[in-house]
């Protein structure tokens, strides 16, 4: 397929993230993954070619070395903490574990 202006190339060093976005069986971070999938579907509906490319992490690749250095510098900056909500499956697992523990305590 020929690329044209407006087509999208998504490059990631996480093959598991790419696989998760491409699957229909989502088990974790369902809200995030389905949001990404919906966005990709909307883009493909307006005739955008979306290509995923796995690239090894910051090892000996020009540009990636610079990105790695920038990330190291950024890690020294002041930080803020943001509460990230647990996914449904994480909450379900925690509740199941607590219920099992309580059941054994009662018997």
From TrEMBL:
Q: Which domain of life is it from?
A: Eukaryota
Can you name one GO molecular function term for this protein? Answer: RNA-DNA hybrid ribonuclease activity
Q: Which residues form the RNase H type-1 domain?
A: 1-76
Q: Which PROSITE patterns does the record cross-reference, listed alphabetically?
A: RNASE_H_1
Q: Which InterPro entries match?
A: RNaseH-like_sf, RNaseH_domain, RNaseH_sf
Gene3D superfamilies attached here?
Ribonuclease H-like superfamily/Ribonuclease H
Q: What is this protein called?
A: RNase H type-1 domain-containing protein
What is the native source organism of this protein? Petrolisthes cinctipes
